[in-house]
Amino acid sequence: MFKNKFFIGFIALAVVFILFYSLRDKQTYEEKALAKIEKYKSDLVNMEESPIKENSTTGFTFFDPNEKWIIDADFVPNEAKETFNMQMTDKSVAETKLVGTAKFNLNGKNVELLIFDEESTYLLPFTDQTNGTETYGGGRYINISKDAVSGNKIEIDFNQAHNFYCAYNENYICPIPPIKNSIPVKVEAGEKNYHL
Question: Where are the transmembrane segments (predicted)?
Answer without folding.
Answer: 6-23
